[in-house]
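This protein record is not my work; I was only asked to verify it. Would you go through it and say whether the fold makes sense for this chain? Here is the record exactly as it was handed to me.
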Amino acid sequence: MTREEAELYYKPKPPYKREQRIEKRLEKALQESKKTAVCPSKIVEYVNYYLSALEISTTDPVEAKIEGEKLREAVESPNSFYAWLKKARGHKDERDIVFMQFANCGRLAIVANSTDIGFPKLVEPKGRYTQYDYKKLKNGCYISEIILHYLEKEWDESFVLVFPILELPEGMSSHKIERSIGNYLISKEVPILDYYSHMFGNPNKRKPKAGP
């Protein structure tokens, strides 16, 4: 794959309105949940192939997998974890990472970027729900946790995959790379439960990092 071909995987966000997000994402999640899971090692292979096509440094398959004490640190002491990750891997900004979390069914749950690794859970009675109001999301729920609850699944909290972006190609942001990676994985028939997780957000702007 050439760099020009790789850049074609960056596409505009889905053509539906913001208030339709939950309905569409639940519908798509159910479809994705019926597809055959792709193992994490194969996903790492796909991501590294795609990053090399963009002429971005790849991540060692062993280092891509964050688990154990470091994963607990990412959730419980994120400032410490992201400072360690930046020093260990060498990316310029702590937010320049793409990460992936899985569900306990073995399927990829989300493709995301920045310093947001975590396992939020929807605190509701057990059982599948068919309708969610966007206003409820505004009250502190992430769409990913609503999707997992809807599918009667849980996070796999044993590991996450993390890909630091050591250098950003001209005209690209970490969000654009996140979106492109997600779309490339879809092209390789990797099921993603929160299918649209990587497609939203402003690819050109982000708030400046707070000073020390």
